[in-house]
Amino acid sequence: xxxxxxxxxxxxxxxxxxxxxxxxxxxxxxxxxxxxxxxxxxxxxxxxxxxxxxxxxxxxxxxxxxxxxxxxxxxxxxxxxxxxxxxxxxxxxxxxxxxxxxxxxxxxxxxxxxxxxxxxxxxxxxxxxxxxxxxxxxxxxxxxxxxxxxxxxxxxxxxxxxxxxxxxxxxxxxxxxxxxxxxxxxxxxxxxxxxxxxxxxxxxxxxxxxxxxxxxxxxxxxxxxxxxxxxxxxxxxxxxxxxxxxxxxxxxxxxxxxxxxxxxxxxxxxxxxxxxxxxxxxxxxxxxxxxxxxxxxxxxxxxxxxxxxxxxxxxxxxxxxxxxxxxxxxxxxxxxxxxxxxxxxxxxxxxxxxxxxxxxxxxxxxxxxxxxxxxxxxxxxxxxxxxxxxxx
Length: 392
Known about the structure:
The protein is an alpha/beta fold and 392 residues long. It has three domains: 3-172, AICAR transformylase, duplication domain (Cytidine Deaminase, domain 2), CATH 3.40.140; 193-267 and 328-384, Cytidine Deaminase, domain 2 (3-Layer(aba) Sandwich); 277-318. The chain is 34% helix and 20% strand. The chain has helices at residues 38-58, 82-87, 98-108, 111-114, 127-134, 148-154, 212-226, 251-267, 271-274, 284-294, 300-303, 321-328, 346-353, 368-377, and strands spanning 3-5, 18-20, 29-33, 62-67, 70-76, 117-121, 138-143, 163-167, 176-181, 184-189, 232-237, 240-246, 334-338, 356-361, 381-384. The strands form four sheets. It has a six-stranded mixed β-sheet. A five-stranded mixed β-sheet has the order 12-11-13-14-15, with helices on both faces. Strands 1-2 form a two-stranded antiparallel sheet. Helix 1 (38-58) runs antiparallel to helix 7, helix 3 runs parallel beside helix 5 (127-134) and helix 8 packs parallel to helix 13 (346-353). It is globular. The chain starts with a strand and ends in an 8-residue tail after the last strand.
């Protein structure tokens, strides 16, 4: 099959819509279930590239949770401790497969943004992973293969309409890619950059020690940025993205947005949040929303009389600014990647507040000296990759 007809394009008024191979060859994908749309396929193809590169760079199964052509989360299949399992709502599952662990991390880091996601998996979707996917609000999944049991589980989702796509893992796209905007064709060479150790050799700070785990996290950051709408910044810790700032016009706004998401990820691990006493039967999405408001500046919206009773058995105490600041000070060893250079040192100042220790960015700003000076002030390790990663 070299063509798949779609319901419509980005919006219902944009018809006709299809994906096809211009050279007449077969598409590298097969729709096993559902009827994927235009944006679904954009998320699927970007997500597949991301997880395929993560797998090649780390040797571990990888997953990503995509929303509107940018990742909400990306991770590799490392074990979860008790706290992470709880905040990702998977503590009731035992013996999760490496593929399932990768998806739990990718989905769980920013559950607000992952709501209604499109999933990409680097390896076969097994039963363990399918069971996690089954109970989440999601539009679809792309993977190189599916076990018989996993496919059976996924085909039951969304009343039998859940989108399941299989991709040929051996497919190699043409070295030149094209797209049209306003009837005009754009052409460029594909971004074939590989995130290997050589990218981090030019360390410009006084501190030049990058542990192996931090090096792995830096690779995850840059690969994630490669498929995130620019401008973009990515915070990573422990083998997973914990905060992604995408599509902002200002670099500092990217850093702040991603930093706030990273902070929220860590605040969710605070005992005060873990001990929230939800009413019986409150769904995971409603609990996610309640936690997000509770740890934010608008906590009064859910703690006022008549509102807290809808979510909690007992009224939670206010999570004060001082308490949050004290807890966040415990988050250390975070890595950060940027798809373009930092023009001002304010980005470093903001990153430091979220526990950043290791940074990878292209360099090349007229104020590089001030940015390096600021990183040295906090004993950070910063590598200039010399490579920009814009994606549009």
